[in-house]
Amino acid sequence: MIAYVVERLFQSLLVLVTVALVSFAVFQYVGDPVQQMIGQDTSPEDVQRMRANLGLDQPVMLQFARFLGNVVTGNFGVSLRTVKPVGELLAERLPATLELAGMAGLFALVFAIPLGVLTGLRPRHWLSRALMAVSLVGISLPTFLIGILLILLFGVVLKWLPTFGRGDVVQIGFWSTGLLTISGWKSIILPAITLGLFQLTLTMRLVRAEMLEVLRTDYIKFARARGLTNRAVNFGHALKNTLIPVITIMGLQIGGLIAFSIITETVFQWPGMGLLFLQAIQFADIPVMSTYLLLIALFFVGINLAVDLLYYLVDPRLRADRGAPERGL
Amino acid sequence: MAAAGMLARALDSDIWHSFRSSPATMAAALTATGMILAAILAPWIAPQNPWDPGALQLIDAFNPPVWSSEGSWQFVLGTDDQGRDMLSAILYGLRVSLTVGVFAVLFAMVVGIAVGLIAGYAGGWAEIVIMRLADVQLTFPTILIALMIDGVTRALLPPDVHARLALFVLVFAIGISNWVQYARTVRASTLVEKSKEYVQAARVIGLHPVLIMLKHVLPNVIGPVLVIATVGLAVAVLTEATLSFLGVGVPPTQPSLGTLIRIGNNFLFSGEWWIVIFPGITLAALVLAVNLLGDWLRDALNPKLR
Fold it and tell me: Which residues contact residue B301 at a Cβ distance below 8 angstroms, ignoring those fewer than 6 apart?
């Protein structure tokens, strides 16, 4: 167990250091910061002094060490576009993105598992067939198109729901939440559905496939032979065993939700981190880009690690084997 | 005679039978072929050249499609804000989308195969570095990597150069964000092939390792790669559309389907729904068709499922 955890931790650290290195390289060498500061009549001596001030004349390893030190202490530099500290900018936007991703994930989970069970238990029922066909279309429709179609239907034609922004927000300490106002709830419905739909279809198909697989096994046949009720067999035995891979995928999808929120936030003008990142790309605002990359890497690595450890707790077979399991995807 | 024999054999093969027994697959093949043909023939079949500003008349702007009361046969699917015929714009856009998609897949394939062969055949440090890099990249969604590459090139190149090179940057960004799958598959099969006798024989007679990899190992590991490439085309087209929609892809002067949807998105609230809906349907149909074909191909070539 300890060896497994240590190995996983080491791998996560390796990923983080690699990303930090890439981030550092981009930050330091793309768009020379001194070039952007000097005017036409800056003397070469002044340029030299600026370089020295920024530490650009020191060895690369030393620069990288200082970059890491800055990152750890929360100093991410200043946005070239808005001239505000990047850490502040991202912290302002973080609640919006996390609330959106959370609601989208919840929406996906609440619908995906019952629908997956239904299509798995009754694969030939017309409703199951219809759901499978719709889910294939759902996977092929790009996120932004789903958002546009929802806006067209519920915002423009029916005029039921707002189509941009977060509505009214309430400030609680550093966290601004839209989940305490009616307009906030109305505003989050369409973006959350847009962002969650892909996860919904994916998870539903996964639950279905796992249910079909599990229902064929001997222990299910044995449970039926023992005369257990359908409910006990389907939910007590079958569903429980399908949940192991589902937890993995759902966990990995949380990271996906945060990354894909870039698209949803653009469609709905949702004031989150994704929108900030996209604007940073369009303006080549390197400090914001590299910080976002680091933050996302931290999210992803943390989630991966958590999922791996959870997997280990949920599946007793892994504890019997030594060595790490080969993870799918 | 030989050609006729080959045709007869092809018509009697398992794959052809499985193709004929699946109506959805046949419909998908028909759709995909139709769209590819339309994209290739766009300059000849499109009613207008949508990329030529001189051919556009502002007076034609915002014409609805032909079946609405104000529509006309001149613009079957209506026009956009600049008087561009939507049907022509979609045909040309399809051409751009497919071109970027195909070249991005080819690029990812070449990089993935080369790297995968080296990792599998050479082993050692090369393998460790390559596979670790692949692991790190797999942690991130492809769209994020493509966005990042686009952002960095934007910072590196002056704006006018970037605009001129937009298509190459896209192909590069989408290709680089997708090489891992190919590399992993090729490496896994190379490891299997490496220990077989024909490879050992080739090594014994003193062939150069590069020659062994390209002439002997490659033909035996290429099968699964082609299946991945089919689904990969759908992914690449979607990624291109998403980037263009986000405003960091194909510039609006020679719009792809994603760029067209981005343009149409501005007129969602003023009632000109056709500017966004028709490119949207085209994109969805293309991706769905390619996905269906890819799924079928994977099952048809998998002997376990027969």
Answer: B15, B223, B227
What chain A residue is nearest to B279 in terms of C-alpha separation? A145
Q: Look at residue B278 and tell me whether its pLDDT is greater than 90.
A: no
Interface contact B140, partner A, CB < 8 A: yes
- Give the ipTM of the model, two decimals please: 0.79
B88-305 is classed CATH 1.10.3720.10: yes
Q: How sure is the predictor about A308, in pLDDT bands with cuts at 50, 70 and 90? A: confident
Contact B178, B232 (CB under 8 A): yes
How far apart CA A273 and CA A285 sit, in angstroms, is 14
Nearest CA in chain B to A19: B136
Cα–Cα distances in Å, from A207 out to A121, A237, A310, A314, B35?
Answer: 11, 14, 18, 17, 34
Work out the mean pLDDT of chain B and round it to a whole number: 82
Which residues of chain A are in CATH 1.10.3720.10 domains? 86-328
CB pairs under 8 A between A and B: 112
Contact across the interface for B269 and A156, Cβ inside 8 Å: yes
Phi-psi region at A77: left, alpha or beta (left = phi > 0; alpha = psi -120 to 50): left
Residue of chain A with shortest Cα separation from B138? A329
Q: B75-100: per-residue pLDDT in tens?
A: 666 777 777 778 888 888 899 999 99
Domain residue extents for chain B: 88-305
The CATH architecture one would assign to domain A86-328 is: Orthogonal Bundle (1.10)
DSSP-assigned states of every residue in A94-134 = HHHHHHHHHHHHHHHHHHHHHHHHHHHH-TTSHHHHHHHHH
- Which candidate in B152, B177, B256 is best for mutational testing of the A interface (most A CBs within 10 A)? B152
Q: Which chain B residue lies closest to A257 (C-alpha atoms)?
A: B141
DSSP three-state, residue A85 = strand
Q: Which of B35, B133, B139 to mutate to test the interface with A (most CBs of A within 10 A)?
A: B139
Q: How many CB atoms lie within 10 A of CB B129?
A: 11
Contact across the interface for B246 and A284, Cβ inside 8 Å = no
List of chain A residues whose C-beta atoms are within 8 Å of the C-beta of residue B247: 278, 282
pTM: 0.81
Inspect the interface and report whether the beta carbons of B242 and A30 lie closer than 8 Å.
Answer: no
List pLDDT tens digits, range A178-224.
Answer: 777 778 888 888 899 998 888 888 888 888 888 888 888 888 888 88
